[in-house]
Amino acid sequence: MSGFLVAQGGNNTTDQVTEVWGQVQSFVYEQGFNVALNLLGAIVVFFLGRWAARLIRRISIGMLQRAKVDETLTKFLTNIIYSLALAFVVVAVLDQLGVNTTSFAAIIASAGLAVGLALQGSLSNFAAGVMLILFRPFGVGDFIKAGGVAGVVEEVRIFNTRIRTGDNVQIIVPNGQITTDVITNFSVKDTRRIDLVVGCGYADDLRAVKRFLKELLDADERILSDPEPVVAVNELGESSIDFVVRPWVKAADYWAVRWELNEKIKLGFDEQGFNIPFPSHDVYMHQTAQ
């Protein structure tokens, strides 16, 4: 009896395998040509699409280089273009294979939205970096003040800018922080004006003080004659007569000339006997009868 059951079970299994194999053969006979054709078409679409994506990237690189766009930005943008082109190719391949790409595109859009929300700070810095590279409010080597930091620009990247301060400290500033702040570029112009305010006492000879200041400026070869330096009485203050001293120099000489002028003015005032007023207070003491 048991042997009969085993034999019957074995016959059922064989029949099922035969039935499945028959269904496979029937599918191959009926749909095999269409499947092979779709597969071949998908392969052709993939290779042609990849070739087109590479061609688009090469054309984009050439256009950006002719437009003299920064190399870092060129690489970044062309990689994005190539990735987007490949994404379209993948969707086209799936569509050729008969896969419903509508839901696939919805998934990609949802994922892109989620990533965009999660990286909105980084995307803001990226957009700011693109603006800085395209419009170039400053370049490498310029001395700037931006984003609350003053120093020499060492490198402008997509997401941040590297600035070296005067005491040789490197500070990495997010580009979004730079573009939302006022940018002061001290290196963009070839010349700069030094603005000094020099006070003398009311008892001093006003003409002699003015003559001394002019001679001091004329004696320094680094001070430009055009525009002409200005030495003028600016204000009659409470305790001093204030002169404005405004010479023009090359941007590279700005700090050296400014520091030396301050020193020479003080030493010259001492030699000439001029006074430099400073705030003072008189204290009067009254003694009352006890």
Describe what this molecule looks like in 3D.
- The chain is an alpha+beta fold and 290 residues long.
- It has 3 domains: 13-118, Helix Hairpins (Orthogonal Bundle); 137-185, Roll (SH3 type barrels), CATH 2.30.30.60; 191-272, Alpha-Beta Plaits (2-Layer Sandwich).
- The chain has 7 helices and 10 strands.
- The strands form 3 sheets. It has a 5-stranded antiparallel sheet.
- Helix 1 runs antiparallel to helix 2 and helix 6 (206-218) packs antiparallel against helix 7 (254-272).
- The termini are far apart.
- The relative contact order is 0.07.
- CATH architecture descriptor name of the largest domain: Orthogonal Bundle
End-to-end Cα distance: 140 Å
Order of helices and strands: HHHHEEEEHEEEHEEEH
In CATH, the topology of the largest domain is named Helix Hairpins
Cα radius of gyration in angstroms: 40 Å
Q: Per the principal axes of the C-alpha atoms, what is the gross shape?
A: elongated
Low-confidence stretches: 1-10
